[in-house]
Structure to design on (388 residues):
C-alpha cells in the first residue's frame, strides 16, 4: 500500500498544493454528505494521488475552509495540470455550488469507459478496477458518515483506493480509445465537462421531489407548503429533510392534511419539532386554509418543450425530422451497437436535434457518426443538420 498522508492544517494543504501544481496530472476524488446526515451538501474529504502517494485532505478542522483550501482550488483551476476523476459530475457540481470553483483539464475514466461502448456503460469505480486491473477493492464504506470524526482506518483506506488506481485506469482506457480512433471523442467529452455548472435558481424545488408523483395536481398547493415547512425545520435542525418527514409521509399528509390539534398530537412519523410552536401552528394552517395554486412562472423560467410550441406545417416538419432521427437510430444500432446509438441519439438528444439541428445539439464526433450512418444507408443527413 502506498503512503497515505492525512492533512488537517492550512499549511499542510498549501505545501501539498504547491507540489501538485508542478505535476502534469493528479488523481482526485471528493467525499461529501448530500442530505444524508446533515442539511445541505457538505464537503467531507478530498483525496489526491500524485502518481506515488495518496493525500487525504480533511477540510473539517480547517478554520476557514474555503480560504484554507484555496491553494488546492488554484490547482483545480489550472489547465496545465490534468485532473483524473472517475464519474466526476457530482464532484464538480459540489465544487461549483459550495466554493464557486470551476475545474479545468478534466479526464474522466467513467466517460472514457462509456466511449468504448461496452454494454455495461454505467460502471462503478470498483467494478472498473475489477474489470481492468483484475482485483477487488473493498467498497463497504461507500455509505458511511464522512462527516464523523475521527475517520476509521477502513474509511481512510477506502478513500485512498478511490484515487490510487486512476492513472493506471486512464492509461489503459486511453490506449484502447486510441486503437479505436476515439481519443478525440474523449477529448471533446472531457472538455464539455468544464462547462458544467450548478443550477442556483430553482423557482419550484418541490416539483423535483419524487413524492409528487403520488399526488394530484389539485393537491399540489398543500404538497408545496408541506415541502417548504419540512425544509425550514430541516434547515433549523441541520438535519436531512427525510429526518423531519419521509417522502412517503409527505405524500400521505398531502392527501390527508392534519386539521386539528388532536390529530397533530397523535400523528406518527413526524419529527417532534413539527409538534411544537411555531411549526405546529403552521402545519395546522396548511391543513385548514384554502391555499393558492403555484404562481405562474416568469418568462425566464417558462421552458415549454419545443414541439409543444408548433402546429400546422411546422409540426409536420418536426414530425418528419423525428421520424428520420428514429430511422437513423435504428441504423446506428445496427452499425455501432445499442450503447453507441443511445449516446448519439438518446430521446433527449433527438428532441434537441429537432430544434437545434445536429450542428447545435451534438459534439463533432457525434455528428460524424450520424453523418456516416446516414450516408451508408442512403438517408438525407441535411434534413436534420441545421436548426429548425
Amino acid at each position: 500500500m502506498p503512503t497515505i498522508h492525512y492533512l488537517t492544517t492550512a499549511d499542510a494543504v498549501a505545501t501539498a498544493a504547491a507540489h501538485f501544481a508542478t505535476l502534469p496530472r493528479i488523481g482526485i476524488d471528493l467525499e461529501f454528505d448530500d442530505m444524508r446526515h446533515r442539511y445541505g451538501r457538505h464537503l467531507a474529504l478530498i483525496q489526491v494521488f500524485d502518481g506515488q502517494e495518496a493525500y487525504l485532505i480533511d477540510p473539517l478542522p480547517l478554520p476557514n475552509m474555503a480560504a484554507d483550501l484555496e491553494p488546492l482550488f488554484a490547482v483545480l483551476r489550472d489547465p496545465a495540470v490534468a485532473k483524473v476523476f472517475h464519474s466526476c459530475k457530482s464532484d464538480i457540481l459540489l465544487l461549483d455550488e459550495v466554493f464557486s470553483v470551476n475545474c479545468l483539464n478534466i479526464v474522466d475514466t467513467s466517460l472514457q469507459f462509456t466511449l468504448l461502448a461496452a454494454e455495461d456503460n454505467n460502471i462503478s469505480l470498483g467494478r472498473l478496477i475489477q474489470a481492468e486491473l483484475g482485483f477487488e477493492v473493498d467498497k463497504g464504506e461507500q455509505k458511511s458518515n464522512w462527516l464523523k470524526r475521527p475517520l476509521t482506518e477502513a474509511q481512510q483506506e477506502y478513500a485512498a483506493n478511490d484515487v490510487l488506481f486512476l492513472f493506471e485506469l486512464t492509461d489503459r482506457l486511453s490506449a484502447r480509445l486510441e486503437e479505436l480512433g476515439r481519443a478525440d471523442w474523449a477529448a471533446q467529452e472531457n472538455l464539455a465537462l468544464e462547462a458544467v455548472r450548478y443550477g442556483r435558481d430553482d423557482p419550484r424545488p418541490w416539483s423535483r421531489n419524487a413524492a409528487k408523483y403520488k399526488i394530484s395536481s389539485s393537491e399540489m398547493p398543500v404538497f408545496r407548503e408541506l415541502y417548504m415547512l419540512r425544509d425550514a425545520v430541516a434547515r433549523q435542525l441541520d438535519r436531512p429533510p427525510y429526518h423531519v418527514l419521509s417522502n412517503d409521509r409527505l405524500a400521505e399528509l398531502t392527501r390527508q392534511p392534519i386539521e386539528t390539534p388532536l390529530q397533530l398530537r397523535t400523528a406518527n412519523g413526524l419529527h417532534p419539532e413539527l409538534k411544537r410552536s411555531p411549526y405546529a401552528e403552521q402545519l395546522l394552517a396548511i391543513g385548514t386554509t384554502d391555499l393558492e395554486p403555484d404562481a405562474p412562472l416568469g418568462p425566464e423560467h417558462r421552458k415549454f418543450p419545443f414541439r409543444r410550441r408548433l402546429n400546422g406545417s411546422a409540426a409536420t416538419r418536426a414530425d418528419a425530422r423525428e421520424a428520420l432521427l428514429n430511422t437513423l437510430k435504428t441504423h446506428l444500432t445496427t452499425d455501432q451497437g445499442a450503447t453507441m446509438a443511445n449516446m448519439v441519439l438518446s430521446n433527449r438528444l433527438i428532441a434537441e436535434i429537432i430544434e437545434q439541428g445536429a450542428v447545435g445539439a451534438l459534439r463533432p464526433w457525434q455528428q460524424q457518426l450520424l453523418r456516416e450512418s446516414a450516408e451508408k444507408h442512403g438517408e438525407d443527413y441535411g434534413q436534420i443538420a441545421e436548426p429548425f
About this structure: The domain at 4-193 is CATH 3.30.420.10 (Nucleotidyltransferase; domain 5).
